[in-house]
Amino acid sequence: MSLGDNPSTVLTSAKDYFNEGFKRFRHNQFPEALEAFEQALELEKNNGLYMTFYGYLLFLVDPERRDQSEELLRAAVKSGHRQALPDAHLFLGQILKLKGKIEHAHKHFELALALNPGSIEAKRELRLAEMRQKDNGGGDKPGFLKNLFKK
Predict the structure, then answer these.
(1) By C-alpha distance, which of 66, 79, 69 is closest to 37?
(2) Alpha helix locations (H) across the chain?
(3) 8 within domain boundaries
(4) The domain containing residue 30 runs over which residues?
(5) Which listed site, 4, 119, 136, 144, has its alpha carbon 20 to 30 Å from 33?
(6) What total number of domains does the chain contain?
(7) Residue 11 and residue 77 in one domain
(8) Is residue 59 part of a domain?
(9) Are residues 138 and 79 in the same domain?
(10) Is residue 2 within 8 Å of residue 36, measured between CB atoms?
């Protein structure tokens, strides 16, 4: 199969498909990225990294399948794939947030940040949650980010 811009480039391994999918993901070409991630996952069904990105892209391309996306992301977390865990927690948190499961989402954002302290998205989600909590009268509780950034 050839998903790349160059028709002479033939993708044969799961890694090839994943790399092509990731390139397309970074360029916001979500349907094409989803196709590549799906091929990677078909070739390596238990790869947590492939599950993570396929699950998240499935949600982005087809939000009606968010339950399937959530299952894939939970499986990715259970896989323990060290490279996948920060993103799996972040993406799972985003889906849970949209489903209204704010406390569960918050825990996944905290885990994502603990695994990847440089995660701008996880920091942003936690900051937004803290601001919402403050707006809803919960301002007396010390926030996660306050403790994280103490001098």
Answers:
(1) 69
(2) 14-26, 30-43, 48-61, 66-79, 85-98, 102-115, 120-135, 144-148
(3) yes
(4) 1-45
(5) 119
(6) 2
(7) no
(8) no
(9) yes
(10) no
Confirm whether 24 is domain-assigned: yes
Q: Which residue has the tokens 């972040």?
A: 90
Q: In this structure, what is the dihedral angle of CA atoms 88, 92, 93, 98, given to the nearest 10 degrees? A: 150
* Spatial separation of the C-alpha atoms in residues 51 and 84, rounded to whole Å: 9
CB 77 within 8 A of CB 85: yes
Q: Which residue has the tokens 């940040």?
A: 113
Distance CA 130, CA 148 (A): 13
pTM of the model: 0.82
CB atoms within 10 A of CB 32: 18
Give the span between the Cα atoms of 3 and 132, in whole angstroms. 42
111 and 140 both lie in a single domain: yes
CA distance 45 to 14: 10
- Give pLDDT tens digits along the chain (151 positions): 445 555 446 788 999 999 999 999 999 999 999 999 999 999 999 999 999 999 999 999 999 999 999 999 999 999 999 999 999 999 999 999 999 999 999 999 999 999 999 999 999 999 998 888 887 765 444 555 555 555 4
